[in-house]
Amino acid sequence: MAYGVRVADARVADARRDGDGFSVVTDDGEQVRARRVLTTDELPDVPGLAERWGHDVLHCVYCHGWEVRDTAIGVLGSFHQALLFRQMSHDVTLFRHTGTELSDEQWEQLAGLGVAVADGEVTGLHIDNEDRLAGVRLASGNLVPVRNLVVAPSSWRAPAFSAGWG
User: Fold this and answer.
1) How many C-beta atoms lie closer than 10 Å to residue 94's C-beta?
2) Rounded distance, CA 6 to CA 26, Å?
3) What is the spatial distance between Cα 111 and Cα 132, in angstroms, rounded to a whole number?
4) pLDDT tens column, 146-166
């Protein structure tokens, strides 16, 4: 322990705001109290995705939408994000990947907005000679051209809890 910090490599089962700190339960049942909780993003297991994170693999329409407007945007598995990014570009493709089946209403919404849907698992990214994302490769072998890919990471892996154990 240094500077009042203990680092724990643990998966969080539950975290709740508790007064001026947090009450955290790990998946092995350990209960801790912390003033701060630091988390890391867990990205889908797609080759090349992590290396492009923060460049042309993005997560938020409010953070990145203006910069990628009017480009070919792919959205990995998130119906909601496909709708949001459709406001920024007419060229949006939802990659269902390993996500859940869409409802009839969702299919209608996507069709009505002109959002393309690519079925099948995403197996990798295609990077051009200028080190830019140029497409998404599906298990079928098809390559779907995109310039940016939106991913909703899971942020519930918490390898570090800082200060305030007690």
Assistant:
1) 27
2) 14
3) 29
4) 999 999 876 533 344 333 333
